[in-house]
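Today's session is about reading a structure prediction critically. Students often jump straight to the picture, but the first step is always the sequence itself: look for stretches that repeat, for charged clusters, for runs of hydrophobic residues. Only then move on to the predicted structure, which in these notes is written as discrete structure tokens rather than atom positions. Here is the chain we will use throughout the hour.
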Amino acid sequence: MKTDLLLITPPFTQLNTPYPGTVYLKGFLNTLSYSTFQADLGLDVILQLFSRKGLIDLFEFIQNQEIELGDNSKRMVMLSDEYIATIDPVIRFLQGKNSTLADSIIQDGYLPEASRFAEVEDLEWAFGSMSFQDKAKHLATLYLEDLSDLIIEAVDENFGFSRYAERLGRSANSFDELYQELQKDPTYIDKITLSELEKLIQKTIPKMIGFSVPFPGNLYSAFRCAQYIKANYPEIVVDMGGGFPNTELRSLSDSRVFEFFDFITLDDGEAPTEQLLKYINNEVEVSELKRTFTLQNNQVSYNNNQTVRDYKFSEVGTPDYTDIKLDQYISVIEVVNPMHRLWSDGRWNKLTMAHGCYWGKCTFCDISLDYIKIYEPIAAKQIVDRMEELIETTQNTGFHFVDEAAPPALMREVALEILRRKLTVTWWTNIRFEKSFTYNLCRLLKASGCIAVSGGLEVASDRLLKLIDKGVTVEQVAVVNRNFTEAGIMVHAYLMYGFPTQTKQETIDSLEMVRQMFELGILQSGFWHQFAMTAHSPVGLNPEKYEVINHSTELGTFANNDMIHEEKSGLIHDQFSYGLKKSLFNYMHGVGFELSLNEWFDFKVPRTSIQPNYIETVLNNETFVTYKPTQKVVWLGGKPQIEFVTKTKKGKTFENAVLQFHTKQDYLEIVVDKEIGEWLVDFVQYLKESPKAVSYQQMKQSFEEKIQTDFEIFIYSKQAEKLKETVLLIV
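Below is the predicted structure for this chain, in token form.
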């Protein structure tokens, strides 16, 4: 078949699910008249490499090399027949096609074991929280990582499942090293990559090939593929877009890049790609391209026709997974971490609730760039329409909303729409820990299928959170975490150390805050990141304000984003890395809470200034809940059953209603006045049948018209409190 555009994600991103860049763009191009085909080239390479034939070829190649192998690699070569015999069943198991293999994997003696398995004994205590299948997946993952170690030592030092030759793309303000690497003969992995690329070209015969390059670990392969296309198919136009050029290549000036690529596009890809397709069809001039670098008169030129409008987020169509081999992705469990398991295990449909970030103020973030700066949500109905379309086309009901931070109000509306349509879905997303996430809202999200959220706690210090302009406090984060946890939603926190002006004391105090949250069970997962100063963040744009010295004073000709800097105070934050990560690993598994914080570090650190019960005290400061007229009323139970009983007290006869309520997990019985019972049954029926969400004000008005008394007396009564604990939400 002949296509206008072949979209490729180059090796490597994720093993378990496609990166959504090409999926989004194909969905948009479906709204136009262009023919497209998309492929995850990384998946194709992995499946070729980790197969029976792939390992036969790999071990033969290694044995023909005249290199001295370490003991671990020698062992694996000696066990080559065992690896060759087990690889296809293991891959099928990790693809979800061979689940009964878990029994064999867990039994000693099935998988050949090398150095990665040395950690199994240390992790054995953690397997108690893992399922039988999860444990088998983890062992199968170690098996693959052993093979990866062999490849790195004996075949290609740049190999990595999700970070191929990453060092060549990270902080590469000069193109020299990458360019020199590309002058060498293709590596063993390159040859597999180029063979798979050739198959795609022969299958699709494209006019243009677009590479979506989200990370530094995709960059080298993209250039190697582009080099191959230029040498063998000079008539094919080659373009690069995606997260890496969007952040790193905004000031590109090295003309050698265009020996490989004809064009490099920035930011949202819809309008730039459409203009490029028009250009190769001779419908527009080069000056009419949108946010596109090219080479003109041997000089790098940037064309950005301001008359070409960008598409609104509501106009870009539904992501399209057509062409991608969805049933061949590999679920792995690299570490025993509940949130990392979601990232690497299972296949998720990727969607976005809103373009950009509704907060857009964090001083470490690239908030000056359009992908953050331009905030544009879409209607909940349209989001859920897209969910239903993807369920139909992928037969998958799992969704990962990849927002910078999903807006709470929109999350509420999406949850209400999911419940209204009675969809069965599972979803998770990234958030800000803001006070809008009440316990009731968290329960609503859970009822709609939300299983986890991740958010930036960053530095657990109110002074630094204010300097970061995060818009939250440690106290607020603790309460929100408690709300999510009690609703049954897992919480993962992004943690940061080394933010400008952070002191040793603040680092240790931040760790103590995190320790208390894990000990109280309101935080289930986390990861420490060291602060990195980027060119497009407020810190990078104004380092003096944050008391750091910028050593990246000259603009490079290639990638310009990460900036070398140092604290004016002279504090070296790297020293905290090991202790922070080791303590967190233990806290995640419920141990080490009793240890003094200084025991995690091999150098002297100050004692924490945080009271040992600080977070507990915060959580015990309950506030009285009030309701706004515009809040929505949601019923989570089935139809109530009602019986009437008559009681006589002091000569007076009272008629009461006994109401029984059932949910999936609970049963509740309350006794109220007959009139209130009758009203409640009728109102629940109205709630369940109403095509629109019912407001608190409507509920109040309905009650007071029927009962002729103040609604607040009822809604704060013991009976209503029981309802609100189980079946009634006000969000």
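Discussion point for the tutorial: The mean pLDDT is 91.
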